[in-house]
Design brief:
heterodimer; A: mainly alpha; 14 helices; 2 strands; 73% helix; globular; B: mainly alpha; ABC transporter involved in vitamin B12 uptake, BtuC; two-stranded antiparallel ribbon; 17 helices
Chain lengths: 338, 353
């Protein structure tokens, strides 16, 4: 830290000023001039929190995508379809059993099984042929999309959050101050979104711990760096591939339930989430979990801020971020140069 | 001893023959059939089936040029075609109030130039990384452009897009008349095909194929690898733009749905099913795709499915091609010919085996 301060004094200053300005924007009561030019503080805070929770959802989808890519070099363009399958299955299970929480383990297992079958019977047959694997995943996504359209139709579904997660919760952030009485109005935000954010953080930290502190994680990291060498040293790499593919697919399925709860499910969502995963891993860096988290946060916040402050051009922000990263750091913010 | 050793060496002689004699007979037959098709075919075949085949084929050809010679599988070609189409609709006359209504001799060059500039910028971004990353980046750009056109009302007229985009009456011909449109599309497709065949043999085309096979060695030889790749994107945009402009004229409208992700993937399907190795591939793939699309109701009804399961057929067909014949249906044809030649050779040699 000291090192960074002394080596880049200018950058440190800029970062400190930006962080301070950001904290002030979040914590302080906005003066009238700022409200006049930027709108109420509540709108800003809602966009920010919306962006962070959207980023949590993007992270859950993109984490599996980036793990699969990092280890196996498979660009699984059917990842969005796995998300959708998870969402629809979660809807059916939650409706049939009446339990939202029960849907999570079942969907994880079922979608992970679909992923295992894809890896075992299709992708492992064409190992090393990256383009062919990608083309196969596109073909699978077309087939899945049409099967889902056939079964669930074109209408949109949304999964009802359970009773204990419905309604807003109060956050320790000042939203506004009542001008006449001086009473502080605290920010209220849908509690389901806050819990999903917490769950995503827990999952992210757990993944980081598994990757960096366990033997399995050691094998995966070794495989990301050099899978031929890992295979040559006697590790049964096909089993490792299956485990990672299954886990990534299952995570996408679980993200589908969450997506169906805080947003809705309809044909086309698979492509939206595939696109967001692509952008997140391009920005964050291929094969890096921390990169996926960072990328998801940036993209989520940029998208929500764009929707609120420049609705016509919100998608352009996402695109410009991606273009800037590609232009100045093609391997992604936290990607390793190969 | 292989068959090739017995074959007469014609390479030196072949160059002495006139250009007409160098083109094999099947090509002459195909040309005559295509030129005389309007005598027998009805308007539906000319306009819908063949017109659409040529358009899809041209957009697929631009992908084939990038993927086959440059080794860059770009999902951007439909977007570039859409960009040119949108420019024709925005700059020229249309039913929407946003259109500027300029005359065709400004609109057409401007559409090509803007699409080429767009392709160059996107290409420059895409070639920052290579290999499998290209697909991801181009897919992301294509999706971003699709969502942008859907959101933006000031330039791209948002969700509804542009309708009543009609071709100009150059030489007093109504180019949307089925026969006229058929010949227009045929001529454009033939020109694009010829251009790709020619480009592949120019020094630029050969250098591009060198870059595809071994970028590091080409860089060591002094070739600017990045510039060659970006130039390939710019050149491919011409074929895609031609297809895109014809597409707008054929449908008389353009909307975000025209350039959506499924359309971008359809172009990839068309090029891969036909074969990415040869310029003819995309046209064959396009013909198969269009026939399946147009007659999907009958085909699906025959097997007892509902008519809207067309995408399922395309998906399964694509899956089968990628799994069993990665080089497309043209590779199947090659394989069949090689086997036939081997059998013939075995028969000529007699009881040698």
């Amino acid at each position: 830290m000291d090192n960074f301060l002394t080596r880049y004094p200018l950058w440190s200053l800029i970062i400190i000023v930006l962080v301070a300005a950001f904290l002030w924007l979040v914590l302080a009561t906005w003066p009238a001039e700022l409200v006049a030019s930027w709108g109420r503080k509540q709108i800003f805070l809602n966009a920010l929190l919306g962006g962070i929770t959207l980023g949590a959802l993007y992270f859950l989808v993109a984490a599996g995508f980036t793990l699969i890519f990092g280890l196996m070099r498979i660009v699984n363009l059917a990842h969005g379809s796995l998300f959708m399958i998870g969402g629809y299955l979660g809807y059916e299970i939650a409706l049939a059993s009446g339990s939202w929480l029960l849907a999570f383990p079942i969907v994880f297992i079922v979608v992970a099984l679909i992923g295992l079958l894809m890896q075992r019977f299709i992708f492992s047959k064409m190992e090393g042929e990256e383009l062919r694997q990608t083309l196969v995943s596109i073909a699978l996504s077309i087939v899945f999309a049409d099967l889902m359209l056939w079964w669930w139709g074109g209408q949109s579904y949304s999964i009802l959050a359970p009773q204990f997660l419905q309604g807003p919760m109060q956050l320790p952030i000042v939203s506004n101050v009542n001008a006449s009485t001086g009473a502080i109005i605290w920010l209220r935000y849908p509690s389901v979104r806050i819990w999903i954010l917490i769950a995503a953080i827990v999952i992210g930290v757990a993944m980081w711990l598994v990757l960096n502190r366990t033997q399995l994680g050691m094998l995966i990291r070794a495989g990301v760096d050099d899978r031929e060498m890992l295979a040559a040293s006697g590790v049964r790499i096909q089993l490792l591939f299956l485990a990672v593919f299954g886990f990534g697919a299952g995570l996408a399925g679980v993200a589908g339930i969450i997506g169906g709860t805080i947003q809705s499910l309809s044909p086309g969502e698979d492509i939206r989430f595939l696109l967001s995963s692509l952008v997140v891993v391009i920005v964050g860096g291929m094969g890096s979990i921390v990169g996926a988290a960072l990328g998801a946060l940036i993209i989520g916040v940029a998208e929500q801020m764009g929707f609120v402050y420049a609705p016509t051009y919100s998608i352009v922000f996402t695109f410009l971020i991606m273009a800037a990263v590609l232009a100045f750091r093609p391997q992604g913010l936290l990607g390793a140069r190969r | 001893m292989s068959v090739a050793d017995h074959a007469p060496r014609l390479d030196g002689l072949a160059d002495q023959r006139s250009w007409s004699a160098r083109i094999p007979l099947p090509w002459w037959i195909a040309a005559v059939v295509l030129l005389l098709l309007p005598i027998v075919a009805n308007n539906f075949w000319l306009f819908q089936v063949m017109g659409w085949t040529f358009i899809l084929g041209m957009i697929g050809l631009s992908l084939m040029f990038l993927a086959g010679y440059g080794g860059m599988v770009s999902l951007l070609q439909m977007t570039i075609a859409g960009m040119a189409g949108y420019m024709v609709a925005i700059l020229g006359p249309s039913g929407a109030a946003v259109s500027l209504g300029l005359s065709w001799w400004i609109v057409l060059p401007a559409a090509f130039l803007i699409a080429a500039a767009f392709a160059t910028i996107c290409g420059a971004l895409a070639v920052r990384t290579d290999g499998i990353y290209t697909i991801m980046i181009t897919l992301a750009i294509a999706a971003a452009f699709f969502y942008f056109t859907r959101q933006n009302y000031t330039i791209f007229n948002g969700y509804s897009g542009f309708n009543l985009v009609l071709p100009p009456k150059i030489f007093g011909v109504n180019w949307r008349d089925p026969v006229a449109f058929y010949y227009l599309a045929l001529a454009c497709a033939a020109l694009c095909y010829g251009a790709v065949v020619y480009l592949a043999r120019t020094p630029f085309g050969l250098a591009l194929q060198g870059v595809r096979d071994n970028p590091r060695r080409m860089a060591a030889l002094g070739f600017n690898v990045t510039a060659h790749r970006v130039a390939a994107y710019a050149l491919a945009s011409v074929f895609a733009s031609t297809g895109g402009i014809l597409l707008v004229w054929q449908n008389a409208q353009i909307a975000p749905g025209t350039i959506g992700i499924s359309a971008a993937i359809d172009v990839l399907v068309v090029a891969v099913v036909g074969g990415l190795r040869r310029p003819l591939g995309p046209f064959i793939g396009a013909f198969i795709y269009v026939i399946l699309q147009v007659f999907s109701t009958d085909i699906l009804g025959f097997f007892g499915f509902a008519a809207d399961r067309f995408k399922l057929i395309i998906g399964i067909g694509f899956l089968a091609v990628v799994l069993f014949s990665p080089d497309g249906v043209l590779a199947l044809w090659d394989r069949w010919r090689a086997r036939a030649a081997a059998q013939k050779a075995a028969a000529v040699t007699g009881g040698g085996t």
